[in-house]
Structure formats: C-alpha cells, structure tokens
Amino acid sequence: MGILAAGATDVGCVRKHNEDCLLVDAALSLFVVADGLGGHAAGEVASQIVVDTVARFVGETLEKDRTWPVEYDPTLSYDGNRLKVALLLSDQAITEDIRRNPERETMGSTVVAGLFHESKLTLAHVGDSRAYILGPEGIRQVTRDHSWVAEQVANGILTPSEARVHPFRNVITQALGNGGDLEIEVQELDLEKSERLLLCSDGLSGMIGDKEIWDIAGRTNDFQHAVESLINTAREHGGDDNITVILVGWEHGDD
Questions:
Q1: Could you read off the pLDDT of 169-198 as tens digits, one per residue?
Q2: Sign of the C-alpha dihedral computed for residues 134, 119, 6 and 187 taken in this order
Q3: Lower CB count within 10 Å: N or C terminus of the chain?
Q4: Which of these, 140, 128, 129, 130, lies nearest to 195 by C-alpha position?
Q5: Looking at residue 255, what is its pLDDT?
Q6: Which residues on neighbouring strands pair with residue 24, listed in sequence order?
C-alpha cells in the first residue's frame, strides 16, 4: 500500500495573480497548501516561503537525532513537532523577508499541511485553508477555520449557510507573518484504507459545498481528474479566488 496523490492550483476567474502555492511530495509523505495574503505579488512570495520552509525542515528531520531550533513540545508526537516547528520557522521567515522588504509589510499566508507515517496522518494549520477526510459514507472537515465567521458560527450567532455568504467571510483571525500570538493547531488522525485526505485553499471551499466536494472526489480512483474537476467546478461557481486542491489516498495492492 503506497501513497497516491495529485494536486493543482488555478488563478480562478477574478484575480489577476495566483497567490496560492502547493507541495505534493510523496517521497516525504508531505502535502501543503498555502494561501498568500497581501496582493501585489507579496502574497505569492509569502506562500512560496511557507512551502519552501516546510519542505526543507521536514526533509532535514527525517532522522530523530538532531538539535531543535525551538523547544520540543512533549505533548506532541515527533511528526507533530516537525510540522509545528516548520510552521513557526515559516512565520519567522516571512517576518524576516518583510524586514528586508518593507514594501511587503502586509503579506502573510494561511497554511494547511499533512504529513503521513503509514496510515497515521499529522495535520497542522493556520488560517482558513482546510483539510477534509473523505470516506465511503461522506465527508468531514477536520480543521477549524481561523476566521471571523467561523467564530460567529461557533458562538451560535451565524448559521453555516449564513457564514458562506457573509460579507466578512474572508476575514481571517490567524496567519503566518501576521505578527502577534500565533495559534498553530496540530492533530493526529488514523486513516482507514478507504479514506482519503483533501487539502484546499478557501478558493475551493468558498465556492463549493462539502457534499459537492465529496460527490466529485469521494469515490473516484482518478485523483488527478478529481482535482481538475473540483477546480473547474469552483470556476463554474464564480471562481472568486485562487483555487488550490490536493487529494491524497492509498494505492492498493492485491491486499
């Protein structure tokens, strides 16, 4: 049983530049979606910094015998620490780039990253880029949006349907490079062979509902076609933002 993955990004129908960035690295079992903020190409810089920093640190920590750049968190697994530190280093790298290039002071990035070890999945995220688990019976969102509307839904002020069309739906409360206290959420999940992981920027989740995502990607074995179909459907629904999707599952043998 090996990892099967596909990913793609698209500028959408409204934006002039694509500020999303993605990483599909089956060799590292690492998958990342970063959604840049800031405009004028600065968002593109931030998301690329995130992807490069995460890939580099995860690649450097394949062996456990090493010195950590920050304090090791004993409440997390080794892979949990790898992703958490990778995002902390990404935050620092964006901040340092802003210091050298003050014209980019408004840039930042959301991120969702998944790291596999056999069937165990470690997830880390900041912002409103999402992770879903798609199974035979349906779809579930496993990350919590760091956004204003998500907080209102959690407090019972807005319904999920109201949040989808609210004028403040794109206001996020956490981002890498944003300064202040950074909230990195890390979790671990055991995936069944029949389940798959979908990572996306809000250019997908803001255009397509959960059921439609599952209808397109939940059962097909053609992952690349599913990714392209999701992007095309988001474009057909308006394509208001850049659209990035990664789909990861298992390549089954005769077992």
A1: 778 899 999 877 899 999 999 999 999 999
A2: positive
A3: C
A4: 140
A5: 43
A6: 31
pLDDT at 80 over 60: yes
Catalogue all structural domains in the chain, each as residue range(s) with its CATH number.
Answer: 2-251 (3.60.40.10)
Neighbours of 251 (CB within 10 A): 12
Of the candidates 100, 66, 98, the residue with the CA atom closest to the CA atom of residue 85 = 66
CA distance 246 to 235: 16
CA-nearest of 77, 83, 74 to 28 is 83
**Spatial distance between the Cα atoms of 111 and 128, rounded to a whole number of angstroms:** 8
pLDDT tens digits for 82-106?
999 999 999 999 999 999 999 999 9
Q: How many residues does the chain have?
A: 255
Residue given tokens 């989808």 in the structure block? 164
On whether the CB atoms of residues 223 and 6 are closer than 8 A, the answer is yes
Predicted pLDDT of residue 254: 44
pLDDT in tens, 232-244: 999 999 999 999 9
Q: How many CB atoms lie within 10 A of CB 179?
A: 12
**Distance separating alpha carbons of residues 206 and 229, to the nearest angstrom:** 16
Task: Note whether 182 and 163 are within 8 A (CB).
Answer: no
Widest pairwise Cα distance in the chain: 56
User: What per-residue confidence (pLDDT) applies to 242?
Assistant: 97
**CA–CA gap between residue 228 and residue 253 (Å, rounded):** 25
9 is written with which tokens?
């990004």
Strand partners for 21: 34
Q: What are the structure tokens assigned to 124, written together?
A: 């880390």
